[in-house]
């Protein structure tokens, strides 16, 4: 498609790109991030409570206006909710981009509102109550629920939301929709931390202790009580079990000293450290080892709680290891540890109790992954209707990304923001009316959507390993990338070429002058650097030779079914690197396999987005190797860091050690100092080029959102950030079907 129709005239694709690129769309999100870095006070709710709906029935009324929030209700910062800044916006036909990047908006969480006097439930649950298979809603909703004022109106119960997924390795597809099982979360702007599973919190003892208060009457999805004992079980029987967690979590430590978890009473838990840990709440707000909920904890037993009443049966401590090993073999697992790991993953085990709005009933290792409403979910709307409104989420397996996009273009999905291709934006626009959907663009603030992570602990080939650890060699590779060509081809010119550093709008940014350092095409300089490194001998095709006379070949590992066409991007970079005499081989793998090989230190280069790194402490793993679960820049360095030197390999690079020292020191710093520390870390990362950025600051990752017009309470723009578990900060539990 060469163009699209607008107001009866033909708009060229290039004109579309120019207009869209001119809409900044980042200032509002930058303001949100600034606020998100601004401290960790206890949550403050409205002084008054919303009035419970006087006519709440078994189902909320259609299109009824939401109960008005009190005048004193907490609101997001004005800068975060404002429409994108108009600076640089073209005067001719400015509406197009504005229509795609709308106003940042979302529902309002009312953390101090009491439980409404009357409660209502979905018809499918009311039927179970009548049949005696479920207790009444008054016994299922906690005494202290989290009350939500929907974005536009009280919704209607019912319906199945249809989406696409690409297989079990795409488990984050569903995880993000059920991430309100986190202890602490954020409002829709990503600027203000809000209660979630934890009702409230406070620091004690001069900040070494964080006290978490749970909700009275909260229950797991199977109806069993959720209490402090579930935290103790995780800490004592899972986290401290070396057969399950071999490497302790670096984020559960201050300056290398591990913390402790203690039960105060049935609804109170204390996290205790030897030193003040003011950064802990920010870290818990992110997708971190101590911040995720059970639905994301999965493979690595992260988070701080687990359902003791269910999982104890799979631990030898509470039974017979021989019996468990036999049960494992009968289930196709190797031993009790493999069985326990499978039972711990909600997307593979529908029997695992959860706390999110929906729970798996048909697992993700089937062609159709289905999640159904949690009858004991802890959130209600202002009229007392237990959320979620939507009964089920049904994700249909798509064999590749092209199928996902073709089906989305045809209007087969109700809500799809994952795997939708930026390169198809003109086609999406052209088919909106026919497919009965609307396209939204949600820009992100991370520096690079296709990052070349250079493995600093690769050791399978000593000569390649030596080159990868050479800063000069990495600089040559970075200078050999034509980012403008990549941007035009795969981002439609909407992205911003640069290195891995975040948007200048991020408070952690080292400054706008750092965005393009070692990130501008300079073939001559790249060749000069390589020649000086002694790589001046070439074969007949102009490819450089190693010291053993073999052609110098690098391999980049890409992942099938990712947000952008990684392999095609890698192939284009390979063509560009031929101009500097470097052969690049692209190896594409399914996500589960690529991640496994990466964790096993088998990769030379690994392509991935550095999403989330704009809020460094809330999601550091795409920026620095501090977490072995996803340390693309050096798995063995990450093990060394996380284990406080007991495992892995200590870096012999002074700058990497400096990064580790800075990152560790930030945990005990106040906000201003920790921001300066993050800026120092980014300066080192840019200069050392441990990872090579290409194009970012775009909607490419989770920001091309296709939503059917039949859905209600959909924000015009939603925050696109890892710490907000996009789309979770928009509270999908308050989405509903208008018809």
Order of strands side by side in the largest beta sheet? 25-24-26-22-27
* Strand content bin: 15-25%
CATH topology value of the domain at 170-306 and 344-439 and 721-737: D-Maltodextrin-Binding Protein, domain 2
Shape: globular
Count of helical regions: 25
Just give the CATH class of the domain at 170-306 and 344-439 and 721-737: Alpha Beta
Mean pLDDT: 88
Rg over C-alpha atoms, rounded to the nearest angstrom: 25 Å
Number of strands: 31
Structural class: alpha+beta
Model regions low in confidence, pLDDT < 50 over at least 5 residues: 1-25, 39-96
CATH architecture of the domain at 170-306 and 344-439 and 721-737: 3-Layer(aba) Sandwich
Kindly report how far apart the N and C termini lie: 32 Å
Tell me the CATH superfamily of the domain at 170-306 and 344-439 and 721-737. Answer: Periplasmic binding protein-like II
Q: What level of helicity do the residues show?
A: 25-40%
**Main sheet attributes: strand count, strand direction, barrel closure:** 5 strands, mixed
């Amino acid at each position: 498609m060469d163009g699209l129709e607008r107001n009866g005239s033909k708009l060229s694709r290039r004109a579309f790109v120019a207009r869209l690129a001119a809409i900044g769309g980042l200032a509002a999100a930058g303001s949100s991030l600034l606020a998100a870095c601004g401290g960790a006070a206890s949550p403050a709710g409205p002084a008054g409570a919303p009035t419970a709906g006087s006519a709440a029935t078994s189902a909320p009324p259609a299109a009824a206006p939401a109960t008005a929030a009190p005048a004193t209700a907490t609101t997001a910062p004005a800068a975060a909710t404002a429409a994108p800044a108009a600076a640089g916006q073209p005067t001719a036909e400015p509406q197009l981009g504005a229509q795609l990047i709308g106003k940042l908006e979302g529902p309002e969480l009312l953390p101090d509102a009491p439980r409404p006097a009357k409660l209502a439930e979905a018809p499918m649950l009311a039927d179970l109550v009548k049949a005696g298979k479920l207790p009444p809603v008054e016994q299922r909703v906690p005494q202290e629920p989290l009350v939500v004022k929907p974005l536009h109106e009280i919704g209607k119960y019912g319906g199945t939301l249809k989406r696409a997924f690409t297989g079990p390795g795409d488990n984050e597809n569903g995880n993000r929709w059920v991430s309100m099982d986190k202890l602490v979360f954020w409002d829709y702007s990503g600027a203000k931390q809000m209660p979630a599973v934890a009702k409230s919190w406070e620091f004690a003892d001069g900040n070494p202790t964080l006290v978490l208060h749970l909700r009275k009457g909260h229950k797991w999805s199977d109806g069993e009580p959720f209490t402090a004992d579930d935290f103790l079980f995780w800490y004592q029987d899972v986290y401290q079990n070396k057969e399950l967690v071999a490497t302790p979590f670096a984020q559960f430590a201050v300056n290398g000293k591990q913390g402790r978890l203690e039960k105060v009473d049935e609804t109170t838990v204390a996290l205790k450290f030897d030193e003040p840990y003011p950064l802990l709440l920010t870290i818990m707000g992110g997708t971190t080892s101590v911040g995720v909920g059970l639905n994301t904890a999965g493979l690595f037993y992260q988070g701080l709680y687990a359902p003791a009443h269910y999982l104890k049966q799979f631990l030898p401590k509470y039974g017979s290891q021989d019996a468990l090993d036999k049960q494992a073999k009968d289930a196709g697992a190797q031993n009790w540890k493999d069985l326990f790991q499978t039972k711990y993953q909600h997307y593979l085990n529908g029997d695992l109790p959860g706390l999110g709005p929906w729970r798996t009933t048909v697992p993700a290792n089937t062609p159709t992954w289905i999640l159904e409403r949690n009858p004991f979910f802890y959130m209600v709307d202002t009229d007392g209707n237990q959320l979620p409104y939507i009964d089920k989420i049904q994700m249909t397996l798509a064999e590749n990304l092209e199928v996902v996009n073709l089906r989305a273009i045809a209007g087969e999905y109700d809500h799809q923001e994952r795997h939708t291709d930026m390169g198809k934006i003109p086609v999406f626009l052209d088919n909106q009316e026919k497919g009965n959907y609307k396209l939204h663009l949600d820009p992100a603030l991370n520096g690079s959507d296709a990052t070349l992570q250079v493995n600093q602990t690769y050791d399978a080939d000593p000569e390649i390993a030596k080159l990868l650890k050479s800063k000069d060699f990495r600089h040559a590779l970075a200078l050999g990338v034509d980012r403008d060509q990549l941007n035009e081809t795969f981002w439609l010119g909407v992205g911003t070429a640069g290195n891995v550093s975040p948007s200048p709008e991020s408070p952690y940014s080292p400054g706008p002058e750092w965005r393009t350092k070692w990130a501008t095409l300079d073939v001559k300089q790249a060749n000069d650097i390589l020649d000086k490194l002694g790589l001046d001998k070439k074969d007949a095709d102009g490819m450089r030779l190693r010291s053993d006379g073999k052609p110098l070949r690098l391999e980049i590992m890409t992942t099938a079914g990712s947000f952008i066409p990684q392999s095609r991007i890698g192939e284009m970079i390979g063509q560009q690197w031929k101009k500097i005499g470097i052969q690049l081989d692209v190896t594409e793998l399914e996500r589960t396999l690529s991640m496994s090989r990466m964790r096993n230190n088998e990769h030379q280069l690994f392509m991935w987005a550095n999403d989330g790194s704009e809020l460094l402490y809330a999601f550091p793993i795409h920026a620095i190797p501090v977490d072995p679960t996803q340390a693309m820049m050096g798995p063995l360095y990450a093990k060394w860091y996380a284990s406080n030197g007991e495992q892995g390999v200590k870096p012999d690079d002074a700058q990497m050690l400096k990064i580790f020292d800075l990152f560790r020191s930030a945990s005990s710093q106040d906000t201003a100092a920790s921001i300066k520390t993050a800026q120092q870390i980014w300066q080192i990362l840019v200069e050392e080029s441990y990872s090579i950025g290409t194009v970012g600051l775009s909607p490419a990752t989770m920001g091309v959102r296709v939503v059917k017009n039949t859905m209600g309470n959909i924000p015009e723009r939603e925050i696109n950030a890892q710490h907000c578990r996009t789309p979770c900060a928009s509270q999908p539990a308050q989405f509903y079907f208008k018809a």
